[in-house]
Amino acid sequence: MFLTISTTGTPERPATDLGFLLHKHPDRAQTFSTAHGTAHVLYPEASAERCTAALLLEIDPVALVRRGKGKGRGGAPDAALAQYVNDRPYAASSLLAVALSTVFKSALRGVCAALPERAAQPLPLRIEIPAVPARGGAELVGKLFGPLGWTSVEARPVALDERFPQWGESRYVQLVLDGELRLADALRQLYVLLPVLDDAKHYWVAPDEVDKLLRAGEGWLAEHPEQKLITSRYLARRWSLTRQAMERLELVRLAEADDIGVEAIDNAVEEIPADLTAGADTMDGAASAAVTKEPSLADQRREAILTALHATGAGTVLDLGCGQGQLVKALLKDARFTRIVGVDVSVRALAIAARRIGLDRMGERQAVRVTLIQGALTYTDKRLKGYDAAVLSEVVEHVDLPRLPALEYAVFGAARPRTVIVTTPNVEYNVRWETLPAGHARHGDHRFEWTREEFRDWAGAVARRHGYDVTYVPIGPDDPEVGPPTQMAVFSSHQENSHQDSGHQETRREESHHQEGKAA
Q1: Less Cβ around it within 10 Å: N or C end of the chain?
Q2: Measuring CA to CA, which residue among 16, 11, 32, 35 is closest to residue 88?
Q3: Half-sphere exposure (CA, 13 Å, Cβ side) for 49?
Q4: Strand pairing partners for 177?
Q5: Which residue has the higher pLDDT, 496 or 198?
């Protein structure tokens, strides 16, 4: 198994700097032990103009079989037929990827104390691997490496036997990559994509492989067009690990798009509570029911939402910003709602919601009614189209005001459910909370809290822009001076209203004909 890394240089920036970046001296051949054999590092050429480092990996087939014990590739048909005679000693695979991470550990991290500025800069690189197993052929090689900044990606198929061209091509390619990249980026790409091309691993894929994938994929995997294929193959098609990785990559993508940290996006909950059976919404759930047996404000809010949904006849409902799943759980209890989708940007919140509704223990008939998906409400999402109603319960106040138009378009312009229900705190009522200091918001993450007039101005403008009618409903005690603690707007599309009007007209015509028939 063989790999070479070449670069060019000048007298001012000699190519032999490659030795510093790889932490391997060009004047010495070095040997390293690995779990399945021996790795050698040597330099076939080393001058100021051109320098090439070679990694030669000798695999012990007997050690591979004994250590593998049927794991990873050991369960594949070709390995089962010939455990001791196979392509593992010669074809670049996860074995070479692990050797890269072991022998060039510091280079993979981009660490070089001697030349830190060189480690941070792109270098003219040429990487050659004589035999790469490519399940998907040369076309897949281009799809994987093409979007990563390489000037040239060459994957020449290797013939089964050059003496018998009629036998066709093998599944191996000779890989040559040319371009200007940081050495660390190039090594991390190889670490991930070599086992992806092989579609196999020589070791058992444990949950910590997700962290390894995200570390090696930092800066390129979140936006890669073949992200799903890469993730699935790297994690040996283990569905639970693939889903976990995809969710975390989506958070990375959203954070990069908004130029903020991942922690700032995935901040819906601080920790998973021990008891998921009780629970109310922050302070307004506990404050109104601290001593009395009156329903909490959170309970009243959910009851008002359910009442509004029943009035519209909605059967399919989106809970946008579902948080920990309180409303999803309430919707599931009502058989009139046949399809329920909870959406939240926070992976942690979705995990809590899944536990709250008992998703993993749910029977098949119930499970088909509910789906929890990760998504940011400020981006259009084709998965949200075609539903009767959408609920934004205590969500808009968590969105920065400059981002509200994006949320508005994603919900009212792109998804366009027949009914949209929005609830939000009434800031005027805050003076009635004895435990809330003056001038403080009800929740630390609230970007704003509206007065009744401000909320109606916003809702009215949204309705006019997108063809909806809007009505307003108070939730909680309606104080004559400051209004209710929560305000709710119910948006109905003009198209839905026209359908209802035509239905009423048809009913009146039928009643008129009936009366005429009786008179006759």
Answers
A1: C
A2: 35
A3: 0
A4: 127, 153
A5: 198
Which segments within 110-236 are labelled E, that is strand? 123-133, 152-159, 169-181
Please state the separation of Cα 89 from the chain's center in Å.
36
DSSP conformational letter for 447: S
* Predicted confidence band of residue 86 (pLDDT cuts 50, 70, 90): low
* Other beta carbons less than 10 A from residue 452's beta carbon: 17
CB 492 within 8 A of CB 468: yes
What average pLDDT score do residues 111-121 get?
91
DSSP, collapsed to helix, strand or coil, labels residue 88 as coil
Residue 160: how many other CB atoms lie within 10 Å: 15
Q: Is 310 helix (H, G, I), strand (E, B) or coil?
A: helix
Cβ contact 355:342 at 8 Å: no
374 Cβ contact list (under 8 Å, min separation 6): 247, 250, 251, 343, 344, 345, 347, 350
Q: What is the CA radius of gyration of the chain?
A: 31
- How does DSSP assign 34-67, residue by residue? ETTEEEEEEEEEE-SSEEEEEEEEEE-HHHHHHH
Q: Are 317 and 370 in contact (CB under 8 A)?
A: no
> Distance between CA atoms of 47 and 293, rounded to whole angstroms?
83
Indicate the length of the chain as a whole number.
520
Write down the pTM of the prediction. 0.58
Report residue 250 CA to chain centroid gap.
Answer: 2
Task: Identify the sign of the CA torsion 102, 104, 110, 112.
Answer: positive
